[in-house]
Write a structure and sequence with these properties.
Number of strands: 12
Distance between the termini: 84 Å
Mean pLDDT: 93
Low-confidence stretches: 1-12
């Protein structure tokens, strides 16, 4: 292997194109050092996982304010927050409030799904000011940017949008490369209840149908990889055929596309481009484990990024809960990255409170999975809560809670007669009474 060496200030500097390229050359980057410290993992072990493609550090060279995070095997499960403008809600200030709140609440990634307004201005503001990992879906932006009929967008124009997002500093892009003419033909033959529910997938499928052309992201995949390599953009291989209802879960179209994504993962790794693979959206509980294991096998351990999965279709207004149930199971059995789902899913653009509810639900799912997987340090958080609860130290409980504000508000809304109890149990409090009896004190349920 030939290393490119340049002399800088009297020293030797080894150049690399991407985090994966550096890892394969034995180089420990500053991003690797930061991630290793966050994860309490040996940096050499981390480098080896990145070299194999089992861990990624999305870190566009133009995202200068990035606080990098690792996603993948043996690391904490990360969460992503979707937001962005739409034709019916074009309020950039509100979207920025969502971004700032999401970062404060510990979301590792922000995905800008804006589909109306000055999308580039918003995107560039994110990569100039936001320390979280930033993702986008260029397919959406092409429709906004060119202001012309979908069928009239050319293959080159689709690719130009990818390059624009890369130059703007985006750390990862969802690109729907896996749906091609062959998979589309099988999709038509094997009827679904819900068809294609992926926005990007439906757009590129419609474009293929109207033009008769091959998916440009599949046909010119090598060019996409060249762009990603130049800026160190992580490929998030989009699942156009993800199931949109539990009736369609694990069908031929979903698995057919996953096989293609496995091949595209291998091709990306050959170019030292980091990859994660997107996974199912709606799926019964009993199918999740098998799907995670199949993905790990087909995609050779590449990090898996899932939307939920939602484990039932009957809960509009509560889909942050259905997604958290599925997300906890998915992450336990192999998923590394959970896309949050808010209570507004399927109903409207989420507001600030919806975003908060979605983040909390997703963080609970991620943390529960980390405990189940035995991620080092995961149970330490719970241990702190347990110690505080044992001695009924309310302030300590609030401080360690995943949502201290809500915990404080609940207690304040129903003040107990005695400070060492809550208004549910009062003198019947098992914790209080056991503490007393174990110390040899008298326990009195009714005041005497």
């Amino acid at each position: 292997m030939i290393f490119l060496l340049i002399i800088q200030n009297g020293g030797i500097h080894m150049e690399y194109a991407t985090q994966m390229d550096a890892a394969r050359k034995g180089i420990v980057t500053k991003e690797m050092e930061i991630v290793a410290k966050k994860e309490n993992i040996d940096v050499e072990s981390l480098r080896q996982l990145i070299a194999k493609g089992q861990v990624i550090i999305p870190a566009n060279k133009n995202h200068k304010c990035l606080d990098p995070n690792g996603i993948g095997n043996k690391l904490r499960t990360k969460i992503n927050v979707n937001l962005g403008t739409s034709r019916d809600c074009v309020d950039l200030d509100m979207e920025l409030d969502k971004v700032n709140n999401a970062v404060k609440m510990g979301a590792e990634a922000i995905m800008d799904l804006s589909s109306f307004g000055d999308t580039q201005k918003f995107r560039r503001k994110l990569t100039a000011e936001c320390p979280a990992t930033i993702g986008t879906v260029p397919i959406y932006d092409a429709v906004v940017y060119y202001h012309k009929a979908l069928k009239d967008i050319t293959a080159q124009e689709w690719l130009d949008i990818v390059e624009m997002h890369a130059k703007d500093g985006v750390d990862f892009m969802t690109i729907h490369c896996g749906i091609n003419k062959a998979t589309a033909k099988k999709f038509r033959a094997d009827k679904r209840l819900m068809n294609i529910v992926s926005r990007g997938g439906s757009i590129i499928y419609a474009w293929m149908e109207m033009t008769g052309n091959e998916n440009p992201f599949f046909e010119y995949y090598d060019r996409v990889l060249e762009i990603c390599r130049e800026y160190d953009v992580t490929m998030s291989l989009g699942d156009a055929c993800r199931p949109g209802c539990i009736m369609d879960a694990s069908d031929i179209s979903q698995i057919e596309e996953l096989v293609t994504l496995g091949e595209l993962t291998r091709r990306a790794w050959e170019k030292d481009v980091q990859v994660m693979v997107e996974g199912p959206g709606h799926m019964p509980l009993n199918q999740i484990k098998a799907n995670m294991e199949i993905q790990q096998t087909i995609c050779k351990g590449a990090p898996f990024y899932v939307l939920g999965p939602l484990v039932t279709d009957i809960a509009p207004g509560y889909d942050h809960i259905t997604a958290a149930i599925g997300g906890a199971i998915a992450a336990t059995y192999g998923a590394s990255f959970l896309c949050y789902v808010t209570p507004a899913e399927h109903l409207r653009l989420p507001d600030l409170n919806d975003v908060k509810e979605g983040i909390i639900a997703s963080k609970i799912a991620a943390h529960a999975a980390d405990i189940a997987k035995g991620v080092p340090g995961a149970m330490d958080w719970d241990y702190k809560m347990d110690k505080a609860r044992k001695v009924l130290d309310w302030e300590a409980m609030f401080d360690v809670a995943i949502d201290p504000e809500k915990a404080r508000a609940y207690r304040a809304s129903s003040k107990p007669e005695k400070e060492d109890t809550c208004s549910m149990c009062g003198n019947f409090c098992a914790v209080k009474n056991m503490n007393k009896i174990m110390e040899g004190e008298i326990v009195s349920i009714f005041d005497e």
